[in-house]
Amino acid sequence: MKTYQKSADLFERAKHLIPGGVNSPVRACRSVGMSPVFIEKAMGSKLVDADGNEYIDYIGSWGPMILGHAHPAVTKAIGQVLKRGTSFGAPVDLEVEIAEMIIDAVPAVEKIRMVNSGTEATMSAIRVARGVTGRNTIIKFDGCYHGHADSFLVAAGSGVATLGIAGSPGVPETVIAHTLSLPYNDLDTFVSVMKKSGDSIAAVIVEPVAGNMGLVPPAAGFLSTLRQETAKYGSLLIFDEVMTGFRVSYGGAQELYDIDPDISCFGKIVGGGLPVGAYGGRKDIMSQVAPEGPVYQAGTLSGNPIAMAAGIATLKELMKPGFYEALEKSSARLAQGLEKAAAKTGTSAVINRVGSMVGLFLTNQPVSNFADAKTSDLDKFAAYYRKMFQRGIYLAPSQFEALFVSAAHSDQDIDATIHAAEEALSELSIK
Ligand SMILES: *Cc1c(COP(=O)(O)O)cnc(C)c1O
């Protein structure tokens, strides 16, 4: 019999000290009717909680851990830099090295600025877009999540969707008035809004593969239409590749779908598990950023040597021949297995996948936008989550999150996951 007593005790203490007991909302596991377990350590594809229970991890720290946990190349790089000190607040060689690596990987990025989180990257990107265009309004898409900056908390995905809140108190209406949120993958609506207001749109920001409403791939022609229309009206196109960058391919979703955005945002994988974000784009745009230009943006710990070292070590592993092919293979194995498990158990489910990002929706209709995602049976998802958890499978505790496969997931891990899913779904269908 598994026990979770140490986690329960820690959570009790945490609830008195930290809002909801957690430092990021979805971790509290409320939407699946559970309390969180506290993690003691992680290695490869596995997590171990405070009570010694082991899990096959499909959260991967919400995206960064594409190599698996505690990858030796990453921990070694961190250890080496650690000897030099932890932070200088002055330029270091590693910042130049990672800038070169990202610029080499992503042709649309000619200059890049490192920050400390995905949120910082996206909020800085729209400041630059507004500064460059002299316009205020931005367009985003329902169910896309771009971090927690004020401008983006309109019909947002991830935790905002999980908690079922439309926006957030504390965000001034005057800020939100400059954000239009449109349905994802809806070309007609987008084109007609641009026709009416294109001249006042500073930027269109999009998750090129949406991973914060579950997993929703871009429809044919969606991204290219965004590209054409923004160019037509002098608006900037921002790809938020915080999740997809170095995930769906080394050059990100923009490489996969062959679109050059004006600005790209990164995070998660580029930090190799440390707090890092980045935004970059065309030279003429990025040259507007201080001190080269007037758009202000700064950071005490930006370009932190330890974080840069972890990012560089991670990217070096990703560059090795065959990396993405192997990841594609195991991700396909998982998605196909889940599809079979659903079919075998008579479960209405939709499995979406792009590379190593997978979404399982408990619904009977195709999911191509946030409204579709919301047709999922959330109670059933919660029950499914709990049954998987009991079987040692650590999924994101929300219907509106993607699942990440890492290079550390073995065929045995994946087959065990499929087996657990089949058992869980069959118990749900009997009930
Ligand atoms: C995670 C995420 C962010 C926010 O990044 P943080 O590091 O959590 O601030 C922004 N955009 C996308 C697409 C993300 O997945």
Q: What can you see in these coordinates?
A:
With 431 residues, the chain is an alpha/beta fold. It has 2 domains: 5-70 and 323-430, Alpha-Beta Complex (Aspartate Aminotransferase, domain 1); 72-318, Aspartate Aminotransferase, domain 2, CATH 3.40.640.10. The chain is built from 15 helices and 14 strands. The protein has helices at 5-17, 72-82, 93-105, 118-133, 159-162, 173-176, 187-197, 222-233, 252-256, 283-286, 305-318, 323-344, 370-373, 378-390, 411-430, and strands at 39-43, 46-49, 54-57, 111-115, 137-141, 179-182, 201-206, 236-240, 263-266, 277-281, 350-354, 357-361, 393-394, 403-404. It has a 7-stranded mixed β-sheet, sandwiched between helices. A 4-stranded mixed β-sheet has the order 1-2-3-13. A 3-stranded antiparallel β-sheet has the order 11-12-14, with helices on one face. Bound molecules: pyridoxal-5'-phosphate (PLP).
Describe the secondary-structure layout.
Layout: H1 5-17, E1 39-43, E2 46-49, E3 54-57, H2 72-82, H3 93-105, E4 111-115, H4 118-133, E5 137-141, H5 159-162, H6 173-176, E6 179-182, H7 187-197, E7 201-206, H8 222-233, E8 236-240, H9 252-256, E9 263-266, E10 277-281, H10 283-286, H11 305-318, H12 323-344, E11 350-354, E12 357-361, H13 370-373, H14 378-390, E13 393-394, E14 403-404, H15 411-430
Parallel strand pairs: 3-13, 5-6, 5-7, 7-8, 8-9
Antiparallel strand pairs: 1-2, 2-3, 4-10, 9-10, 11-12, 12-14
Helix pairs in contact: 2-11, 3-11, 7-8, 12-15, 14-15
